[in-house]
Structure formats: structure tokens, C-alpha cells
Amino acid sequence: MGRVLKPTVLDKIRVPIFKRLLACLCMAALLAAPLRHMGAVPSAAFAATTVGTGGIKGTNLPAGYVTQDQMKLAQPWKDMDESALYQVMRRAQVGQQIRIAFIGGSITKGTMSRGTRDSSMNKKLNYVDYFTNWWYRAFPKADLRFTNAGISATDSYLGVHRVQKDVLDKKPDLVVVEFAVNDRKSAYHKQAYENLIRKILAADSKPAVLLLFMSRLNGKSCQLQQAQIGLHYNLPMLSYGNVMKDMINKGIYTMGELSGDGIHPSALGYAVAGEILVRYLDGIREKSLGQVYNKKPASSYVTSKKYNSAKLLNCKNITIKNMGTFEKTQKSRTFPNNLTTVKGDGGLTFTVSCRNLGILYAQQVNGRGGQFDVYVDGKKAATIDADNSDGRKSKPGAVPCYSSSTKRTHTVRIVRKKQSSGQSLTIYGVLVSS
To answer: Which site among 7, 103, 135, 396 is 20 to 30 Å from 330 CA-CA?
Structure first.
């Protein structure tokens, strides 16, 4: 046994100093960690997540919720063209910059309801969290950039008008589209959804597209209508709705466990959706090293190219002829530069050049929202109902007002109905395409 050396006086001084220095360094690291993960400041419209701000960073992915048979229900569409996804993963594998974007409603934004078994969930994450987490884990060398363009209570009709600014200007390599819950089974929603998909596919960055079909607990969803568009363009598609229905019918999970409000998934519901996405991505990654088969993209439309040039004009971008009882306001951070009336008959008059025209407005829960008629070139074209007093919160509403095969300048007038229940209306913007 060797001789034990006794500490000197100098050692006794050095040790406390070293401990204090080590403690300071640890404290500095703890304080710096949140700053490193803050990333870019979220914009008013949606949060932009840049490289290094991915939250859970590959440490937790959902597993054990979805069976192999249920994965088949999530992917009932066969022989979809996944070559664009293969190419994105191949680029990520060698460490290139990859930009991934999400566009949809409140489910994409991350709104979560409280389920009856959420207290047992270790992580309360939404599907976007799980999706981005998988990419961080799978491709640690890649320069990953994420944009979440989900806005609550919005549909593909508004989506096709805002996708250029909110998503495509960021030159994405992959776009996930989720509007099955907020869309309706209407002709204009079908046209809007198809034109949204075509605008994404035709973008300069030529992104891959993945369609995600969420669902309300009562089964209400536009999956069938949107899947028809996906099939036409041979796009990969995933159905949470199919899996959710199977789980409830077999008594695996109750409705109250999967959602607390019948619309938004609970933490458990999001974990189910997350596992569907993660297992699908795992399968794509395995195949991405093989031979890539490119199908010829469809050139024809299922509907028409009605909204091919769609865009959202705020109230600064229109030529106002008469303000009436409207005033310039800033009611919304997401859609700035508003026009609001709280009394009188409205009487807003403006001109705009387009083929197709719609109005984006606020649906109010305060009981003051009124009903206003929209006249285009002197003819009544639509009615705006700004009253959402039966809802939980105010939300954006969009109504198509006019459609033509010829582009020209139109005069639009918005007037409160005499029998209106309220007097208030806020215009967020004008939806046009030419």
C-alpha cells in the first residue's frame, strides 16, 4: 500500500477556489441553455423554428400505441409516389440544409385538449413536436429548419391565399398539409385544397408533400374529399382518423382519453398521431437508400385552377373609396392592418382587381358581431356573419363572395343588414386570385 500524502496549506486554498469556479461554470451553462433553445422570436402569424431549437431533440418518441394492423389503416392508399421524400432524406443523411414546413389549423398550431388519462403521459407534445423530433434523431448532422404555419380555425380556402407568404417564400423541401378537420365537403373547399396542393408542388423549391388527415371524434373529416386530390397527384397520405376510429370501436381507448373537446387531440391522441408519423418516416428512411421510382406528375386538375394565383391582401393593399363608419385598427397580430366598425351601417367601399374575391373577417364571441351584406359591382354577392357568441373564442372567418373567368376591377361595398343582431365587424383582409 502506497504512502498517503497529506494535503498542504496551498491545497486547502486551491480546493475551495476550484469548487467555486466549477459551480459558477455550471450555473452559467444552466442559464445559457434556455437561451440556446429559444431560437428566432416567433412571428405574429406563426412560430418559425430554426436549427437547434427542436425541444426534445430525439430523446423521446411515441411507441407502443399503434399496432401493425392499425398502421395499415393509416396507409390504405397503395403505390403512392414517395420519391420526393426519399430525396429529402438522402440530402439530410449527408448533412445538407433541410427546410420543413407545416400548414394547417389549430391541430397543426399545437392546440391540445385535456384527456382523461393525460396525467399519466410523461410528455405532452403535439404531432409537429414528434415529427420534428424524429428528424433531429434520424439526421443529427443535417442543418434542419422548421416552420409551423398553423393558424387556429383556418381552412384550405384561407390556406391557398396565404401559403406563398407563410410557407413557400421560405423555400421548403417538405410540406405537411393538415386541413381535414376545418374544411367542409363543399365545392369551393375542394377547389381550394387542390389549388393549395398544386401551388406547393409548383413552388421553386419543388418540395415533397405529405397529406395528414386528422378527424373529430364524431368522425367528421374531409379525408375522402382530400384523399381524392392526393390520389390524383400520387401523394403520400396518412390517416389519424382511421386509426382513431378503430381504437374507439375496439375499446382500446375511449373518446375521453383521445380528446377532451371532441376536436383537438389530447396528449394521448397526439402521441397516437405522432407514432403514425414516426413509423411511416422510419419506413421511408429504410427505403430511401434503394432505387428511386418517379411517377409522372398529373398535369390535369380534378377541379379547376380557380385559386392558382391566390393571395391575401391586407386592408392597406386595397383602394378605399369610402370608409363609411369603418376605422383603421390593429385587432389582430396574425392579420395586421384591419378595418373595424362598431356602430352605424358600415358602408365601406373599395376597389380591387381580380377574378375571384373573398373576405377575411373576425368571428366575435362578445355578442357584438353583426351580419353584413357584401355587394360586388352593385349586386349582393354574400353575407358575412361576424357573430360567434356560441363559440369558445373569437376566430377568423373567410367567405367567398365573387367568381368570374375574366379579371377586372370590381367595386365592393359592405353594409350592415337592418335585422343584424350586432353592429360590429372587423375586416382582416381581402382574398383574391386572378
So the answer is: 103
CA pair distance 176, 215, nearest whole angstrom: 16
Largest distance between two CA atoms of the chain:
104
CA atoms of 144 and 102, how far apart (whole Å): 14
Instruction: List CB contacts of 106: < 8 A, sequence separation 6 or more.
Output: 150, 151, 152, 153, 182, 263, 264
Distance CA 119, CA 346 (A): 49
> Can you spell out the DSSP letters for 111-161?
-----TTGGG-S----HHHHHHHHHHHH-TTSEEEEEEEE-TT--HHHHHH
* pTM flag (> 0.70): yes
Q: Are 204 and 171 in contact (CB under 8 A)?
A: yes
In tens digits, the chain (434 residues) has pLDDT values of 444 444 444 444 444 544 454 444 444 444 443 333 333 333 344 444 433 223 344 567 898 999 999 999 999 999 899 999 999 999 999 999 999 999 999 999 999 999 999 998 988 999 999 999 999 999 999 999 999 999 999 999 999 999 999 999 999 999 999 999 999 999 999 999 999 999 999 999 999 999 999 999 999 999 999 999 999 999 999 999 999 999 999 999 999 999 999 999 999 999 999 999 999 999 999 886 655 555 666 789 998 889 989 999 999 999 999 999 999 999 999 999 999 999 999 999 999 999 999 999 999 999 999 999 999 999 999 999 999 998 888 999 999 999 999 999 999 999 999 999 899 999 999 999 99
Measuring CA to CA, how many Å separate 168 from each of 233, 263, 335, 372?
19, 28, 18, 33
